[in-house]
Queue: 2 jobs
Job 1
Amino acid sequence: DRGRLARAWARRRSMPILNDDVGVAAVEFALVLPFLCVALLGIVDGWSYVTSSLSMRAGVKTAANLVMEGSTSDTATQAVAISSWEKRPADGQVTLSRIYMCGTTVVDASTLCSGPKVPSVYVQIQASATWTPPFTFGVFSAPSVIGHLEVIRVR
């Protein structure tokens, strides 16, 4: 009978512990917290990438608008693109080039197309830089090259 009494006492003693919910929320939070942190860091990295890309694009678009307004100085247009590129990375660069075409054939600026026609002129504005993530983990674990290209027909 003594064994039966000891088991009954142990059963009564352990039941309140099994029914106690005091620390459940803390344990659940501790299990979920790492996933929330990873999601937050991923959002910050993604946001950094998108804002860097949009800032580069805004600089190129500003230069393209200047070309469409009639700017003929490639150096000045390049300077405007660089100055309007907010938070430009140290290796961020903008290049401008003029392409002369007769139909689908690329020619020199001095070449005349068939007949007395002058070639079509295209201005190509290209920006590139290396984006470095604020946190290095997961998908965005290494720096990546970002770029934007805009081609404008001038004539």
Job 2
Amino acid sequence: LYFEHLDRFLQVFEGKQIKCLLYDDLQASPREFMQEVYSHIGVDPSFEPELIEKKYHTRKARPRFQNVYNTLVKCSKWVSGLGRGAAKVVQFVRAKGWVDLFHRLNRGADFPELSPQKKQDLAAYYQNDVKRLSRLLDRELHNKWLHPYIEKNKN
């Protein structure tokens, strides 16, 4: 639960040391989101990485061959940790588009949609936490995150 974890951090750190951002904001406006991050950590907010518009992991499907996928991820991390030369191998593989090709070939079935009842149960479970987080962040989150799921099934 977000509020509980955030509240623990706020008990230890000053409020100005913590910047709480929402994934919704990153999706809506990546540039402004990153400018907020940069400003908070002392980086020039005008800095703009080359890949600001690139979308990663946007598919909602399971890998067809999960074990192969997990092994390749581990190998990539291992090779990247070997040093600069080895990390260049991983960059080369990515630049050639082989990673994207693998993801296309390894696409499995889409994740199943949650049932309306499961959505309603989850919304009820998180409702109090979302209200507390809304107050803490001074942002209205209930209507966006929970209202559609609670109200649809009351009839």
